[in-house]
TrEMBL record:
Name of the protein this chain belongs to: Putative ABC transport system ATP-binding protein
Pfam families tied to this protein: ABC_tran
Organism: Eubacterium ruminantium
Family that this chain belongs to: Belongs to the ABC transporter superfamily.
Domain named ABC transporter: residues: 3-230
Keyword Acyltransferase included in the entry's annotation: no
SMART domains linked: AAA
An example Gene Ontology CC term for this record: membrane protein complex
UniProt superkingdom: Bacteria
Length: 232
């Protein structure tokens, strides 16, 4: 099993103000699969992603990725794990405003050993003609594609996407999801997306429905659809 999460719990706040955000999450993810966590706003989706991505620490439970336990590790070990294993596409893109598209990607490439060629990647993501632009001069879709390029240029085994279509219109959302399909096929990347968009679940190999910090349902999809087959 590529990712194995057991009894994951997370609290915020102290003492009487303490709230339980994740109440014992169990999840498994196969290598090379696309998994979608579906749930309403506030259900704990970003918290799960941030813990798997090493940005937050769990209070209880275990997270094992590619045979390595990441829960309870030192910050140096977590930094290395993030550098070597994880690509993260943030909801707000997190591009560096005073660097061009190409420079934004280069700075991430430097962090990894098994890197993807930047020109190849920019071509794949339709960014070649925008490579010298600054983020403020890009459309939402172009910013999102730059964010995806930054996340995968180190060729991570696991790509985590927080609401990847959250701020995009319908056509641009489909373009973005098609690119994620292509990335999975070309590089074998395992992709975990969290979203409130039900339609995205149709492209998944497995869906977890989350509600109030608990997995309400786990669905293994027999025939995942390609982005162009999905009725939106
Ligand atoms: P989702 O991504 O599904 O919208 P989140 O994981 O962001 O949900 O948040 C789940 C719950 O945890 C929400 O009630 C949110 O307000 C709370 N929460 C998230 N982060 C923090 C934090 N750093 N401090 C306190 N509460 C938080
Ligand atoms: Mg969220």
């Amino acid at each position: 099993m590529f990712v194995e999460i057991k009894n994951l719990k997370k609290y915020y706040g102290e003492k009487e103000n303490k709230i339980s955000v994740l109440k014992g999450i169990d999840m498994t993810i196969d290598e090379g699969s696309i998994v979608v966590v579906l749930g309403p706003s506030g259900s704990g989706k970003s918290t799960i992603l941030n813990i798997i991505g090493g940005l937050e620490t769990p209070d209880e439970g275990s997270v094992v990725v590619d045979g390595k336990k990441i829960s309870g590790k030192s910050s140096a070990e977590i930094s290395r794990y993030r550098r070597e294993m994880i690509g993260f596409v943030f909801q707000s893109y997190n591009l560096i405003p005073n660097l061009t598209v190409k420079e934004n990607i280069e700075i991430c490439q430097k962090l990894g050993d098994h890197v993807i060629d930047i020109n190849e990647l920019m071509k794949l993501l339709g960014l070649s003609e925008h490579k010298n632009k600054f983020p403020r001069h890009l459309s939402g879709g172009q910013q999102q594609r730059t964010a995806i390029a930054r996340a995968i240029v180190k060729n991570p085994k696991l790509l985590l996407c927080d609401e990847p279509t959250g701020a995009l219109d319908y056509e641009t959302s489909k373009d973005t999801l098609r690119l994620l399909e292509t990335i999975r096929k070309k590089y074998g990347t395992t992709i975990l997306m969290v979203t409130h968009n039900e339609a995205i679940g149709k492209m998944a190999d497995k869906i977890f429905r989350i509600s109030g910090g608990e997995i309400a349902k786990e669905i293994r999809v027999e025939n995942p659809q390609s982005v162009d087959e999905i009725e939106w």
